[in-house]
Write the structure tokens for this entry.
Amino acid sequence: MAIHKLLCIFLFFLHFYSGHSELQLNYYSQSCPNAEEIVKENVIKLYEEHGNTAVSWLRTLFHDCMVKSCDASILLESINGIQSEKTSKRNIGMRNFKYINTIKDALESSCPMTVSCADLVALSARDGIVMLGGPHVEMKTGRKDSMESHLAEIDSLLPNHNDSMLYVLDRFQSIGIDVEGTVALLGAHSVGRVHCMNLVDRLYPTVDPTLDPSFAEYLKHRCPHQNPDPRAVEYARSDLQTPMILDNMYYKNIKNNKGLLLVDQQLVSNPLTSPFVEKMAADNDYFHDTFAKAFLTLSENNPVSEEEGEVRRDCRFVNRN
Ligand code: HEM
Ligand SMILES: *[C@@H]1O[C@H](CO)[C@@H](O)[C@H](O)[C@H]1NC(C)=O
């Protein structure tokens, strides 16, 4: 009896002090009923003006959520002792952050200090996926924003373009995403671009023999320098046919040895992942379903609690009183 009581008390405290918060569908239904609509309207408007914003929202969620928590830490600027995650080499090429501010401003003018930047990252990714022809993901809300940057942890938590597939699978496993889900998530590389510095190792001094020769020619044409200036806007596209559509063309391409990154190509050569590549290349609906499930899990990684986080007024800075 006594032990049961103690256990109950322990579980009670664990529930409130584990540092996790409960996400729920329509968390803002009372506090800001139009929150999700405001995000969606703005994502659509921005997509119509700058299509690649939708692509950005996808990558932003990955880089935010994979590093400790979906807590909008990625959006913080370097100021007042904070070192921005944007300065990490892993985050090269990330773009359109200024339009996050556009959406946040719209939220603030309807519902001041109510909707977190972390939920904005999540909801904009959800709506961006739809603009790119991908699946609808039923997303919960209620995330809080971090008070700190996780710059120091990025290199150990966020996979690099040339990491081994076993390492990549292990990273995703650690946040509850299995092999099938990992293969599906990498399908995000069906859209967007890769800067030359992330792929020149596959071209110089010798061309990676696993690359399709004509695709290697295209890549060398796009990336003529072995050591590209990091500031140069030299990049290539992985999916030349449908670069703005989140479809299974990515899997068809990597099967044909037309993957941009070493991790992309390894999906085909690794025996754990290759059966899923086959299935996704053959079935776009299956890809979309699996992608939606894994993306949801990614978006719910370790949300910060009410006590540990806040709702930032401006996504670039922690609030100061
Ligand atoms: C092993 C895992 C992954 C690695 C190593 C990786 C690495 C990269 C690299 C190196 C780029 C090129 C950046 C540039 O040069 O501009 C890129 C682009 C991109 N990644 Fe990933 N990525 C991974 C997984 C994911 C996941 C899970 C998502 C989202 C679900 C994602 C979404 C994107 C998008 C949308 C782009 C294009 C960005 C743009 O065009 O602005 N990636 N990724
Ligand atoms: C992976 O690429 C980075 C540069 O992006 C390089 O510094 C590192 O040595 C590479 N690692 C391997 C194992 O080739």
